[in-house]
Amino acid sequence: MTSTFGSWPSPLTASIVAAGGVGLGGPSVRTSETGTEVWWSELRPTEGGRVVLVRSVDGGPASDVLAAPFSARTRVHEYGGGASFLGADTAYFSNWDDQRLHRVSLASNVASEPLAITPEPEEPHAWRFADGVESPDASWIVCVSEDHHAALVADHGEAVNALVAVPAAGGEPIVLSDRSDFVAAPRISPDGQWISWISWDHPNMPWDETRLLAAPLWANESELRIGKVTVVSEGCSAVGAAWTSANELVFSTDVTGFWNLNGWEPESKSTRVLTALDGAEIGGPQWVFGLQRWVELGDDHLAVVITTDAVDSLALLAPNGSMSPIETPFVAIGGLASFGTAEGERRVAVVGHSADALPCIAVVDATASPGQGVDAPISVVRAGADLGVDPAWFAVAEGVGLTVGRRSTHAFYYPPTGPVSAPDGELPPLVVMGHGGPTAHSSPDLSLKVQFWTSRGFGVADVNYGGSTGYGREYRRLLDESWGIVDVEDCVAVAEHLAATGRVDPERIAIRGGSAGGFTVLRALQVSDVFSAGTSLYGVADLEALATDTHKFESRYLDGLIGPYPEAKSVYDARSPINHTADLSCPLLVLQGSEDEVVPPNQSEAIVAAVAEKGIPHAYLLFEGEQHGFRQEASIIRSLEAELWFYGRVFGFEPADPIDPVDGAVGL
What we know:
With about 675 residues, the protein is of the alpha+beta class. Among the domains are: about 295-385; about 390-650, 3-Layer(aba) Sandwich (Rossmann fold). It contains eleven helices and 37 strands. The longest helix has 19 residues, at about 635-650.
């Protein structure tokens, strides 16, 4: 079959992308009377974005634990994470509709009806909870709370985050620590004698500088309190802290330039180095709660996730410090959980992302290394969705490394892929993608939102611009006071490189991105003539408005990326796309959620009004009920189809897909 690039009749429809985009979270492992249970969460676009708790016993069929309308999702930090956790005989979760903490009894191995255990707030969603742990005697929950009651916010100037204890049977939360702007990762030692947590203050983000704290713990059925607090780590970014069975606190810090593991012993107050990786790291940015990059296995071994150039791998860390790879097909690992610390037990459950299959829940047996290049035994508990699409349609990432000035930049390039050929001499259009964050990174795992384009005859460049994670602290700090400069330079450099090497059509290059990536889109369209179209998904248009009108977690993020506000107001003005609409000249598509608290709709509406006044071809779609990132099936479908229609109009091809034009589009 021969067809013009962009017009390929792909079997990977927008509906398949939406239905196949189930987000897997967790996992957790629990032993019950009926066997060993693996738990995880599923974000289901086909159920309106509901997050369901799921479990499998001894590798058997998966079963839902939460029935509609319950949804295990928290609003803490707006990005959430850590919305559910397991106790001895109980599952706990934060329910999306009311944000109250609920419990589900598992004493009979049959889940009970969820019971709310935190008070109903006087105002909707005013009291939120996340990232909890059950006390050893199962009497208490220690977790993060975020209080948004209007009177409290008026008094403090923002929501109040605290470490709190909640009676497991239900009752008023007791504040344990509220001296920091943010807290995360409360964890209790196996002997119940110590508690640890991470805290940080404005203007730091958790990947800038945190404090790892520990304190003695006293708990019984009627009381829980903490003693004198010890600072375990400060002056760097500490993440992923948890206790081993020997009551050692293991955590990652980036003091060496890469996140590496350390161990702290509470009695002696001494710290030891567990890993000393250079060029790779064990740890990542704490955008959401509940992220864990290591777990303890049997015989004092640890299973660790190592990130090297934005690609994940598993390894086994022995007590003597030696590291051996655990070969798997996974290039990104979303979470992991241990099956226990019994002698010889070295199984670990993971959320595994591979280059040629959708994410799965799998159990990796690291008991014996089968040899270099041979995968460890793996049993799949929850397979990725079978899309019914021939793998011949799936593009495989090619690593791209470039020098930009005196520094390097990185990207993954996906060529047009499918059992289709294009007319002789034609070059494909290119879609340059900039990830959100911007302190994050893209991985080369199978992404349906990448394959949607490549299977239609587009090339896709997924850019890990300077400032991305997965390359160490120095690379991560390249965006300090340089957001809107370094990221744009890198996206332009990758696009120019692919055009200069004859991979793509230099006259048909688009740039797209969401959130921070949307800001990069708008900046790139203003400072470069490389791109002939752009798509901004809930992108930042006015930095000053963002600095003064966003949620608490990111309210001082721009201090590092741009400069302190209002002292650096002139820089905010100079970098804000809304102030340079005269420099926009190519068509623009803007997609936005109506309930976005991170980048409010007024940001998108301001840029749309500006391009409309200038007469630039454009289209704007507002998705009702969506927040920061589209989770509903209908929204995902319409946004993808609208973007394909947009590129067809700009680049001069007719999509094979039947697509309704975008209402209100101007000049397209």
